[in-house]
Amino acid sequence: MQILAIDTALGAASACVLMQGQAEPVAGETLLMERGHAEALLPLVDRVMARVEGGFDALSRIAVTIGPGSFTGIRVGLSAARAIGLACAVPVVGVSVLASLAAPLFAENETSVAVAVVDARHGNIYFQPFAPGGRALSPPRLSSLRDAVRWIGAGPFRMAGPGARALAAEAQNFGLRADVVGALSAPEIAFVARLGLISDPETALPRPLYLKPPDARPQDDGRIARV
Amino acid sequence: MDVLGIETTCDETAAAVVRMRPEGGGDILSNEISSQVAEHAAYGGVVPEIAARAHLEVIDRLIARALDAAGTTLRRLDAIAAAAGPGLVGGVIVGLTTAKALALAARKPFIAVNHLEAHALTARLTDGVNFPYLLLLVSGGHTQLVAVNGVGDYSRLGTTLDDAVGEAFDKVAKMLGLPYPGGPHVEREALKGNPTRFDLPRPMLGRPAADFSLSGLKTAVRIEAERVAPLTATDVGDLCASFQAAIIDLIVDRARAGLRAFRERKGHPEAFVVAGGVASNAAIRRAIARFAGEAGLRLVIPPPNLCTDNGAMIAWTGIERLRLGLIDDMTFAARPRWPLDTNAEPVQHGKA
Fold first, then answer.
1. Are residues B286 and B311 in the same domain?
2. What CATH code is carried by the domain that includes residue B143?
3. A148: domain range?
4. If you count residue pairs, one on A and one on B, with CB atoms under 8 Å apart, how many are there?
5. N or C terminus: fewer CB in 10 A for chain A?
6. Are residues A92 and A106 in the same domain?
7. CA distance B28 to chain A (A)
8. How far is B209 from chain A (nearest CA, A)?
């Protein structure tokens, strides 16, 4: 099985192709960026696929990060992945950004709790703690930094992701041990591919994980009284 | 020649397959649409983030359905087209990215379509109209008069300086407590009402430039409504009828100014084409038909389902552009603003 992995949920546009059973991707590219994912992604996928023997016909699965992260970025990745899945008639699996960020940490045979952290703005973060070995200790959550420190327990922690520095600093304020060790801007795309290979297409659906409702309130103002 | 068209610029997700007829015009092989009206109703208008999320929910299944209904496959298509703007950028990105990825993976040409151009060219899909023609585009997002000279060649003759006509309908409906989207409800109420009870202004009437202005009319409706509040059912009917009558006068007068401007530049138009969601209002259609008859114009109003946003018009525009060799690459960016006439002065606050 050969998988194409795509990520545009955080501070990069990335894609790689990984063959099952091999340690490293056949081809891959990552461009760090804060905006412009929508324009960058498909030319990037085009370049990556040009280095894969057989091109799109040689793919048997697509993996894509589903969030949490930038709403627009999540939709860019999911739109592209689902369309490629449709065109190639292969399954598309959704991979959590938080699991992808944490995955390199529990690959290292450590005993501390791994926490994946994504900035959710306005002093909030998306986060998820994982036990050594990779079992999730809670579902992905959205909270303030302070509430997150209460949630994750006593530590010690190793943290990764674009909110890791902020959460580590907050944890240290409470006297907890927290080291920032993993990727800071975006998941390593090879880990998205590896998680994609072991995901079940029946359950790992390519659906967005926003964790935040749209910012909109029902409007009744300006209505003139009726009898 | 078969092209898939994808539309996600506002609150309808749509996908369609259209086939070009050798003798001109096209056949709509499928025309799938998923409306989000219910999701936005509580907010009294389209909420961009809700729209973008809803487009992503359905887009790939809708495309699969459009291909099935057309009895075709991606492989058999000649190109894939998507609306790349103007519109709500979060939604546009969903349709545009989907189309680019389909085109890349299926190795088909990709065509980025201007949503306004798609409305403008629909009359060629349905009626094989020749260039040049006069277009009145009236919808919730756009109100303009355009000389359609050729594919990609447009001269704007007039535009709204503030609200779009459909937007004015929605705002009036909202202040009168009618459900969203307001157009059909205002039309229904107007049938029961007296169009002469409220003397509402007709802004811009008689002006030589073919521009529109709606915000004064909308404010006048509010002032009249507040004067007679609390509103009875009769009041609501009379306000809607008076408002719609003012809109009709305005549209006919502005169309006359547009026709004058067209004749000065291009001579007699091949047709007068009306497109956009507002063109599904029966009273407005009747008034326009009367005007076209008096002016000796061939009137073309596409059927209501092709006047509102749809995928077939995007697919058809894809065909028109592909025929001329106009294709786009994978770097094409969504355009929140994309005027048809790139030489026209931008209008401040205008929903051009």
1. no
2. 3.30.420.40
3. 98-180
4. 132
5. C
6. no
7. 22
8. 33
ipTM: 0.96
B145 and B229 together in one domain: yes
Q: Which residues of B touch A216 (CB under 8 A)?
A: 43, 47, 49-50
Domain of B181 in residue numbering reads as 131-304
Return the closest-CA partner of residue A87 out of A42, A51, A31.
A42
Q: Are residues B258 and B318 in the same domain?
A: no
Which pLDDT band, with edges at 50, 70 and 90, does B42 fall under?
confident
Among A122, A131, A133, A128, smallest CA distance to A97 is for: A128
At B80, give phi and psi (nearest 5°): -125, 125
DSSP helix/strand/coil, B252 = helix
- The answer to whether residues A80 and B98 touch, using CB atoms and an 8 Å cutoff, is yes
> What is the per-residue pLDDT across B45-56, written as a single tens digit (0 to 9) for each?
889 999 999 999
Where do we find the tokens 């291909």?
B67
Examine residue B79 and state whether it is found in any structural domain, yes or no. yes
CB contact under 8 A, A225 and B230: yes
Of residues B43, B95, B105, nearest to A88 (C-beta): B105
Instruction: Tell me, yes or no, whether A112 and A191 share the same domain.
Output: no
Look up the CATH number of the domain holding residue A32.
Answer: 3.30.420.40
Asked if residue A221 belongs to a domain, the reply is: no
The SS3 assignment for B41 reads helix
Please judge whether A215 and B174 are an interchain contact, meaning their C-beta atoms are less than 8 angstroms apart.
Answer: no
DSSP alpha helix (H) spans, B176-303: 182-192, 215-228, 233-266, 282-295
From chain A, pick out residues whose CB is under 8 angstroms from the CB of B105.
Answer: 56, 83-84, 87-88
- Residue B149 falls inside a structural domain: yes
Residues A15 and A73 in one domain: yes
The pLDDT tens digits of the residues spanning B99-157 come to 999 999 999 999 999 999 999 999 999 999 999 999 999 998 899 999 999 999 999 99
Looking at the structure, do residues B192 and B265 belong to the same domain, yes or no? yes
Cα–Cα distances in Å, from A202 out to A87, A90, A199, A205?
A: 19, 13, 9, 7
